[in-house]
Amino acid sequence: xxxxxxxxxxxxxxxxxxxxxxxxxxxxxxxxxxxxxxxxxxxxxxxxxxxxxxxxxxxxxxxxxxxxxxxxxxxxxxxxxxxxxxxxxxxxxxxxxxxxxxxxxxxxxxxxxxxxxxxxxxxxxxxxxxxxxxxxxxxxxxxxxxxxxxxx
Amino acid sequence: xxxxxxxxxxxxxxxxxxxxxxxxxxxxxxxxxxxxxxxxxxxxxxxxxxxxxxxxxxxxxxxxxxxxxxxxxxxxxxxxxxxxxxxxxxxxxxxxxxxxxxxxxxxxxxxxxxxxxxxxxxxxxxxxxxxxxxxxxxxxxxxx
Lengths: 152, 144
Prior knowledge:
CATH topology of the domain at 5-18 and 57-145 in chain A: Thiol Ester Dehydrase, Chain A
CATH topology of the domain at 11-26 and 61-139 in chain B: Thiol Ester Dehydrase, Chain A
Number of helices of chain A: 2
Largest interface: A-B, 39 and 38 residues
Number of strands of chain B: 5
Shape of chain A: elongated
Radius of gyration of chain B: 17 Å
Largest sheet of chain A: 5 strands, antiparallel
Number of helices of chain B: 3
Oligomer: heterodimer
Mean pLDDT of chain B: 96
Distance between the termini of chain A: 24 Å
Helix content of chain B: 10-25%
Strand order of the largest sheet of chain B: 1-3-4-5-2
Helix content of chain A: 10-25%
Number of strands of chain A: 5
Structural class of chain A: mainly beta
């Protein structure tokens, strides 16, 4: 089946996300990172103007999204893999910030798979703006729908 | 651990970044990351579901490994200086696996008022299989 290019440009609804200190600490612990910039207020204020979240913390937007924030990509979830994830960190993010995330499907394309059949790639870009309207981060996620059920 | 200050003038292309290792991932690690991140895909914590999906057991979220690997960059450059981090998922990490994280600088450049370094990273398991390959850009303070 040819790849459906019509989903390019499809947007999710804006998601509001509060960057919370407790969640930052929990996330830092989950990735086994004891850098005090994630929990020591005095240290973080001196080094970075306040507690910052880890680099991959924006993944936690899922806690704030009831599902409407993700533009629908018609992939079969049993055959879908997370291929790539990229973060561009454009301005500082601190505990206490309120971010608004808007996700857009920016590309869909097909490639032949290594084991025959074809794989479909969907690239979703999410822009995060803070309470002042500043673009603080851009995330790009590549989802892959494989030709058959995912095995290693 | 807090990052130590490194100056742009004192690093060069090809420099290795300090290696970092997590020994023996546990199912508890997966559950902690599930709660922290909101990724409750049962394939990462529910043995029954994992088996029904054709897996011998649960396996780590790729983004857990990506978070662990990101520590090589933040320990080197300091969290506020990280400008870009990109990961590509290769193979899965299972309970008991080690996550060994390495990196090296590939390029020094000046962009506007910022002095930047770019680098490549990889996380491998105890058999040397690549779990993730990654790249990054970070700004470093300048002596000049």
